[in-house]
Amino acid sequence: MRTFANKIAEKDYYEHQASEKEFLAWYAKQDRQTYETPSVTVDSVIFAYNPVTNRVNLLLIQRKAHPDLHHWALPGGFLDKTEDTTQAAIREVYEETHLQIAPKFVDQLTTIATPGRDPRGWVVTVAHLVYLPHFPETQAGDDAERAQWFDFTIDPETHQLHIIGVLDQLLAFDHANILKKASQIIQESFEVKPKWLNLLPPVFSWQAVETIAEQFSGRKISDQIAHYRELYMIPVNTEKHDDTDQPHAFFRLKKPI
User: Fold this and answer.
1) In angstroms, how far apart are the furthest CA atoms of the chain?
2) Are residues 52 and 63 both part of a single domain?
3) Are 138 and 234 members of one domain?
4) Model pLDDT, residue 161
5) What's a Gene Ontology MF term here (predicted)?
6) How many domains is the chain built from?
């Protein structure tokens, strides 16, 4: 067994002279015990366009266990060591809501490591943003007591997302902050890459585009998105609007955004 004059010499040897295999074996016994390891979770902000109300809805689950018992939360849970965060997000959503989401619809939103964000200990979460191109039914499972779609509004000044029927203080953990981050990302996308357009049905009216844009921005925004027609859309047909001679245009997306 190799001996060293002191810990500094030992560390220098394994970091700079030993093989990587020797270094990793030494590191497992030495440094890894020095650093506390956090738990990692995933949370998913899932939006879908409700064809009945013509508004976007947000999917939440109601927790049936501590912590935050009975509070509403984003679907999510702990990361397994055999999966990446996208796989974990998809698995947790299915376990808690019975929705099967394709990986192409899942984008990483942000990583949050705020101290004390979870009363169970040091928990880092990786939040994801999902735009579903359909409005599926849900069924609660695993540690979810209920799974439900909610309407919401966004404050244009603070960017805070307010869920209709759920008080902000009844959201679990720091999920209100995650929703605020999602709304900020969406509003920043108006001039860059409005992926929220993927929420629209295969054929849609311009009024539907304006409705979603106003819901996500919290204000009238028609003039700022007029160029979307040319950039992202193709007219597909027209119909007479009511009893007037004004045509009512319909569109489809050129391609997913």
Assistant:
1) 94
2) yes
3) yes
4) 95
5) hydrolase activity
6) 2
